[in-house]
């Protein structure tokens, strides 16, 4: 993993199964995407306080607020599905997607891909967080290591990359997810241990 290459561990990491979309980018593309990713968080409304504020603005009747909010959530999901459907051919040409075990921290990621990336290459990564509303965190990363390997009999590249550009709100969202997953793992381990 990224942190193994540096004795100083800055972020906690976990192993998990996540959807990762990746594409190799040039130095010029890196410079073009830098400010866009650094200063624009993935989620506009992703915090409970924002949703609470939205609920308060809609109506004073709790039942009506909850109905309107559930309609808005449904509409948002449908819009996301339509956008994904309309732009899927374009995305498929640009990004290589994989859904397999990764190691991820707030500082970087280790994943498997069919992209021929090597140390020093730049990549644009989209990491889907499997929690509602399923945000895709975008980051620009530098590949520290890319080696051929086999996973379940298929040839892949094991990519170890460090996040160079990531929006700090997105990093916080990723770190929050990592700690939540680790708490779940510890709770399950404790339940299994106590059940014996």
Topology of helices and strands:
Elements lengths: L12 E13 L1 H12 L9 H11 L3 H33 L1 E10 L2 E6 L8 E7 L7 E16 L2 E13 L1 H27 L2
Antiparallel strand pairs: 1-2, 1-4, 2-3, 3-6, 4-5, 5-6
Helix pairs in contact: 2-3
Descriptive report:
With 196 residues, the chain is of the alpha+beta class. The protein has a domain at 13-43 and 96-194: predicted glycosyltransferase like domains (Thrombin, subunit H), CATH 2.40.10. The protein contains four helices and six strands. The chain has helices spanning 27-38, 48-58, 62-94, 168-194; strands spanning 13-25, 96-105, 108-113, 122-128, 136-151, 154-166. A hairpin with a 2-residue loop joins strand 5 and strand 6. Helix 2 (48-58) crosses helix 3. The longest helix has 33 residues, at 62-94. The model is unreliable at 1-9 and 45-49 (pLDDT under 50).
Q: Give the end-to-end Cα distance, rounded to a whole number of Å.
A: 33 Å
Mean pLDDT: 81
Task: Kindly name the structural category.
Answer: alpha+beta
Query: How many strand elements?
Result: 6
Order of strands in the sheet with most strands: 1-2-3-6-5-4
Tell me which oligomeric state these chains represent. single chain
Low-confidence stretches: 1-9, 45-49
Q: Briefly note the CATH topology name of the domain at 13-43 and 96-194.
A: Thrombin, subunit H
């Amino acid at each position: 993993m990224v942190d193994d290459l540096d004795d100083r561990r800055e972020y906690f990491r976990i192993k998990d199964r996540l959807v990762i979309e990746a594409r190799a980018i040039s130095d010029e593309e890196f410079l073009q995407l830098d400010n866009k990713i650094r200063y624009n968080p993935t989620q506009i409304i992703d915090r409970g306080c924002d949703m609470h504020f939205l609920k308060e603005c809609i109506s004073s009747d709790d039942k009506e607020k909850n109905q309107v909010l559930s309609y808005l959530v449904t509409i948002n999901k449908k819009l996301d599905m339509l956008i994904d459907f309309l732009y899927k051919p374009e995305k498929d040409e640009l990004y290589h997607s994989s859904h397999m075990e990764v190691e991820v921290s707030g500082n970087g990621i280790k994943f498997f891909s069919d992209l021929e990336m090597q140390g020093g290459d730049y990549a644009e990564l989209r990491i889907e967080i499997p929690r509602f509303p399923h945000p895709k965190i975008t980051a620009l990363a530098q590949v520290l290591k890319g080696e051929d390997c086999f996973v379940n009999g298929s040839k892949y590249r094991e990519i170890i990359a460090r996040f160079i550009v990531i929006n700090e709100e997105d990093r916080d969202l990723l770190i929050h997810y990592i700690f939540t997953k680790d708490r779940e793992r510890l709770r399950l381990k404790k339940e299994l241990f106590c059940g014996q």
